[in-house]
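Office hours follow-up: a student asked to see two folded examples consecutively, so here they are.
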Amino acid sequence: MSVYHAGSRALQEQAGLREAADHVGRAVGDGIKPVAAAFLELQPLLVIGAADPATGRIWASPLSGEPGFVRATGPRQISVTGGPAPGDPLAGALARPDVPVATIALDPRTRRRMRLNGRSGPTRGGFSVTAERVFANCPKYIQRRAEYWWDPHRRPGPSRHGHELSGRQAAFVAGADTFFLATAGPSGVEASHRGGNPGFVQVMSPTELSWPDYPGNAMFLSLGNLALDPRAGLLFLDWADGTILQLTGRARTESAADGTRTVRFSVEHAVETSGAVPLRWAEPEFSPANPAPTE
C-alpha cells in the first residue's frame, strides 16, 4: 500500500517534490522499533486525532500522564493508560472498537516527534492502538522547552462551548507558537504539528483563521487530506497553565503564484477547558527554522 494518496501526490507534483517525498516515504513502516518504543515511554504528553462518531467532526485531543502512560506492548501496538476527560469531544470515539486514529508524541526538550496512525480499541485501563503507519519527522519549527513540571493537583475546569472565538480565545490563538492539526483522508487520520513565532496564526475574524504552510518534509500528508476532505481539528495548548482550546471546522489551502501556500480554517465549534493538562513547561526557545514574522 502506498504511503501517499491522490491528494498528497497532487501537491507533491505541484511543488516539484515528488522525488523528495518518495525518499522520505521509505522511512514509513508499520512496526515500532526499539528506539521508538523507548522514546514513547519517556513522554508525558500524547496528542490524538480522530472523528467524533456522532457528528463526523474531526478533533485533536491531548492525553497526559506520568512517563510510561504510553508504551509499546508489541511490535505493532501501543497501550495508553487513561484517556480524554469525560467531556472531551473524543471521549466517545475512544470508547469504541476499531476506530481510525492518529497520534503524535512531541518532546519539546529534544525537539523530537513521532507519529503513529492505526486503529484503536478500549482496554480495561484506557485504550490501545494497532499501528498501520509509524514514522518520525524532522525537528523543524518545534520550540524547545527545556523541562516540565507535573502538577498532581491540577484538575480540568468545566468546558466552555461556542461557535466562534471570544476575544480572549482570539488573543490566545494569535499568541500561540504551536498547535496540532488533525485531518482525515483515504489512508486514515493524520495528526501533525505546526509551529512558528507567535503571530504565525492569524485571526481574521471570530470564525476564520489562517496560517502559512512552511516548507517541511515534502510529504503533504495533512494538506493532501484537506485537498480531498476539508474536515479538520485544531488543538492549542497553554504550555504554562494547561488550558486547551479545541477547534473543529473546515480548512482549505490557497497557493500563490510564488509557490507559497496559506491554509484558511473556518471555525464550526470551539471547546475551551482550563487546567486540562497537568503539565507546566519552561519558557520556549524558538526554533531557528521559524521564519521571521511579517508585518
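And the second, which I mentioned at the end of office hours:
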Amino acid sequence: MSEQNTEIQQFDSIILLRDHLLSNLLGEDIDAILYWAGKDLARNHPVETELEVLRLFEQYSFGMLTQIEEKKNRKIYRLSGEVIEQRLENDQFPSFSLETGYLSQQLQRLNNIYSEGIYEIKPKKKEVHLTIQMDPKEPLPIDQN
C-alpha cells in the first residue's frame, strides 16, 4: 500500500471516529467533553515550546496550526489542511473543541497565565480559527498548570 493511501485511510479513520462515533456517543455534550479532554491530553503530554505545540498538531492529525494574530491578552490561530477540509466536507457540524482545549492548556502551561479558548469554523476558507483568551491578571500557581 502506498504512503498516500495510508495517509488517506488515516484521515478517514480520524474523521469516522471524531465526527461520527464520538458525536453519537457524546450527543449535545460533545463540545464540553472534548474541550476538557483536550486540556487533559495537554496536561498529560506537556511541551517545552510553542513550536512543539504547532508540530504536535500535525503529528496528532489535528491539522496544520498557524498563529495569525497576537495581542496582549489574545492569540488567534488558523487550523487548516487536508484533514480539516475533509472534516468540514463530511460533517455539517464537526467539533474542534478537542483541539481548542489542547491548545488552550498548552499555552496556559507555557505562559503560566489562565487561558480559555473558543473555535470558529470558516467554511468558505475551509479552515477553523482558534482564539485563546489569556488573563495576565490571573497568573496560576506553578503547581496548578
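Two things to take away from it. The chain has five helices and four strands. The chain has one domain: 3-144.
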